[in-house]
Structure formats: C-alpha cells, structure tokens
Amino acid sequence: MARPSVDIGTTARTLAIGTAGGAVFWTLGLPLAFLSGAAAGVAACALAGVKVGLNASLRDVFIVLLGLTLGSTVTPDTLAMLPRWPVTMAGLAAAMLSIMWTGAFYLERVHGLDRATARLASMPGALNFVMTLAVETTSDARRVAIIQIVRMTALLLLLPSLVSMFGEAPSGNFFQPAGDVVKPLQLVVLIAAGFASAAVFKRLGTPAPALFGGMLIAALLYGPGLLTTAMPTPILFATFVVLGSMIGSNFAGADMRLFLVTVVAGMGTLLVTSLVALAWALAAAWIVGLPVLQVWLGYAPGGVETTALLAMALGLDAAFVSSHHIMRVVILNLTRAAVDCAVHAQAGRRGVAAAAILKTASPRARRETCWHMPPPYPR
C-alpha cells in the first residue's frame, strides 16, 4: 500500500503554526520553547479541527538530523561508560514489565477500561507497534491512541517546567563538540554519512532507522574525535520546530468528545508509570553511579525523540537515553508473540484485514484509522 502523502500546503501551515507556538513560548521564557511550543500550538489547532500534518520525507530528513545531533554528543567519556549499560539495560527490561502491569491495573481499576485496551494503552513507547496490535484485538483502538499520544506529549510539555521548579531550567544550549564553530566540509561529510547510514538501517528493518542510523554514524565519527564540527544553530532550531510539529500533529483527526473523556486516563497513566520508572531508575542509578534523571529518562514512558532532546537540554547523556528507548522497541518486537498472547488472552481477534493494511501504512494513516474506528463493545 502506498504511503499517503501530506500536501505542501498542509505541511507549510503546520510548520507556520509550530513556529508561532515556539515564538510564543520563547517570549514567555518557557524552557525548550521551539520544541514544546511547536507541539502545543499544533496540537491545539489539530484538536480545534485545523488540518495539520507533515510530509513524511521532510519528517524523516529532520529525524536524521536529530540523530546526527544526538550522536555528536558522544565523547571518549561517553564511551568509557559503555560497560555500565548492560546493567541499566537489564533494569530497562524489568521497568518495562512493571510499567505495563501497573499501567494496565490502573486503567482497569480506576477508569474501567477492558483488559485488552488497558494493556495496550499502558505499553511504553513504540506507538506504531502498539497501534498495529490495537486493531487486531477487541481493544478500543481510539482510546489506546489517545492515551499513548497524551502521555508522550504531556511528558514533553511538563517535564522541563518541573525540572525548572526543582533545579536549573533547561537552557536549550545543547552540547556542541566545538562550541559554535561550524566546519563546512566536516558538516557535509557528516550529513551525507548520516543519510547513507539511515538508508542502510531502513533496508535492514531496524527500529527507528532514521534516528538510529544518524546517531550511530555520528557517534562513530565524534567518539574518537574524527569530526569536531558543531551543528549550525538554524538547523537545530528548525529541527526542534519540525519535531515539535510532528508530535502535535499526532492529534490530527481526533474525536474531541472522546479526547476530553480519555485525557484524564492518559495523564493518570503518565503519573503512575513515571513513578514506577523512577523506582527502577533509582535502583539502577545507585548500582552504576549514573544520574538518576538520566536513567529515568531512559526508562520513561515517552517517545525516543522527545526523551533524547530532553536529555540534551538537561545536559545529560542523550546517546544513553535514546539507545535505551531504541532497545525498548527491539525488546517489544522480539517479544511480539508473548505480547500477542497476553492481549489475546482476554480479547478475540478482529479486523485482521485492517491490521494487514495498517502494518504497511504510514503512522498518520494508522492514527486516523484508530481515531475513527468504532468501539468494539458498548460504552
């Protein structure tokens, strides 16, 4: 099935809204203004019925640039920390199981969701993976989508302000290996290598190939000191606006009434699962001697792009955070059979043909199918 494209007019409108939202947040002095402001502005317009969306090719270009930016933060000190990662990866697996169980328990007992819907809505991250499963079962795919997206967006909008209340505010002045020195030839080599690496990993079927490909090649070039160029500030800010707009456009096509009813469940799930992730992060951070907030961001139930950018803004190891989120997607894919059994144990299959289509459809097509799918049981 061909991926439906978003026209240039819609893309331009979405980016204009995102830029305006970022400018408003910047004027108000809010942290991560051009990322969180873009997300908030586009999300508000989407819920108001404005047609928003980003062209998939443009989105992928900027995700590669984000991967390069994350990989450029890798230093010899970062590489020296690699032996500690197996411990935190083991903690990640335990945190995932705990998050899924406690989140589902909360949604069932407090909000009265059926077990299949609760289990899928509580799965941390991997939105496309979760939504593909949602249409294969009797779960309410619309509620699953809303809870997942609300949790991801709220983490981006709320965490910087919470950190500002208890410590130093995120400045947005991310680590640059050469300060603000841009070396054009090195920059060309870096970007070309990033896109080539992303293409290879996409061909291999790797989770998040654009992000992972860009991050890995940049880490290999910056870690040993082969490249030292900084990423130009205009590219960084453009990346923030595009990614913030991408997050906000997740709400395109949402049913406002259902959204208002379900948003409380999404916020409650975020609180419960974040506390569970914090408990595991405290233990893992104590064992390996890493910052608790850094490990928590690696375990937090949010999207990989969002948590990695938050890590950079907070002066933490973004490569650590993004690598753990990518590993979470890998774990979910490797345990697909077990996840299927857990969900199908309480729900029969439905919509097999629709599921087959969604597996090859774009993320936007999957979301909009879920928004308009009728609930499988009376409400």
Structure description:
By secondary structure, this protein is mainly alpha-helical. The protein has a single domain, classed as Na+/H+ antiporter like fold, CATH 1.20.1530. The chain contains 18 helices and no strands. It has helices at 8-27, 33-47, 56-71, 76-80, 85-111, 115-121, 127-134, 141-166, 184-203, 209-222, 233-248, 256-288, 292-299, 304-313, 318-334, 336-344, 352-360, 363-372. The protein is globular and about 55 Å long.
Task: Give the SSE map.
Elements: H1 8-27, H2 33-47, H3 56-71, H4 76-80, H5 85-111, H6 115-121, H7 127-134, H8 141-166, H9 184-203, H10 209-222, H11 233-248, H12 256-288, H13 292-299, H14 304-313, H15 318-334, H16 336-344, H17 352-360, H18 363-372
Helix pairs in contact: 1-2, 1-11, 2-11, 3-9, 3-10, 3-11, 5-6, 5-12, 5-15, 6-7, 6-8, 7-8, 7-18, 8-12, 8-18, 9-10, 12-13, 13-15, 14-15
Describe the structure concisely for a colleague.
By secondary structure, the protein is mainly alpha-helical. The chain has helices at about 10-25, 35-45, 55-70, 75-80, 85-110, 115-120, 125-135, 140-165, 185-205, 210-220, 235-250, 255-290, 290-300, 305-315, 320-335, 335-345, 350-360, 365-370.
